Amino acid sequence: MRKLIGLCLAAVLATAACGTTEDPAAADRSTPAGDGGGSGPVTVTDSRGKEVKLDAPAERVAATEWNAVEHLVSLGVMPVGVSDIKGYGQWVSAEPLDDTPTDIGTRGEPSMDTLAKLDVDLVVVTDALVEGAVEKIEETTPVIVLAGGDTKDSIGKMFDNLDIVAKATGTEDRAAELRAEFDKKIDEGKDAVAEAGADGTKVAFSDAWVDSGSVSIRPFAKGSLVADVLAEIGLENAWPMEGDPVYGLAQADVEGLTVLGDDVRFWYIANDAFGDPYADQLANNAIWKNLPFVKSGEVHRFPDSLWMFGGPGSMGQFIDAAVDALG
């Protein structure tokens, strides 16, 4: 499953579909590294439990996975190297890149030659890289490994990852601001849900893709980051199945949607760059058309380019989208 999440969207959803909430934060994106960590040596413990020692807060940073890229940009550190820049632009709108990063290849297997030419201080990756890639990069450059996720505390893990990146780049003050902004966004979402009389509304959130003519559906079960954020604002996850232990993602087909009750709202994300299996392939499917939430019009597509595995900015966008969907 980790490999699926790490590579699926880079494969243009052929096998799977893996903003700042308040724009004042944009003013901080130009803040140089060092706003909260000084300029001396830095030691960071990453998700492996490994201590990574830097002579100073990293300024020239490359990142492979898009959550790490989003963390860097939100902290005011524009990465010099990013995996699959085109894909990032299609799927992540909360923290956009400028025109300076260099594409370093795929998210699962970055180009070692390109990384070497960039002369970076640090490479930030997740545990989804191909075997041996981390060790190869570490021959010349410090590497911080972030956990892809953790269904036991998905929101806490998001901030753990953010804090690791912040410490490595000397941007801990900005990380604290991002946490405060997110807490405020949660409170605003709670108030909006309550005002709409929607506390406890059952929601099934998913994405989908087409494989050999069949629609595969990916439920975001309890423990997934999006589902847990929606739960924080008072919405109930309607999926009865368990997801994987890292991302909280399950698998289903259109027949599997019949387990959802009559009182469920069905929310999903798609992307115009890759199509919408629910609106296209399933439009004339008899099972789909007879599902209670389809017949009652309780199907809602979220806006494009909200990254389901991102940082506080992306999750703030999901809160806004959920409130809009309840309107």
Automatic annotation (TrEMBL):
Alphabetical GO biological process terms: iron coordination entity transport
Name under which the protein is recorded: ABC transporter substrate-binding protein
Matching InterPro entries: ABC_transptr_periplasmic_BD (IPR002491), Bact_iron-sidero_bind (IPR051313)
Keyword Transport included in the entry's annotation: yes
A Pfam match: Peripla_BP_2
Record's signal peptide: 1-19
Fe/B12 periplasmic-binding domain location: 60-327
Organism, as annotated: Actinophytocola xanthii
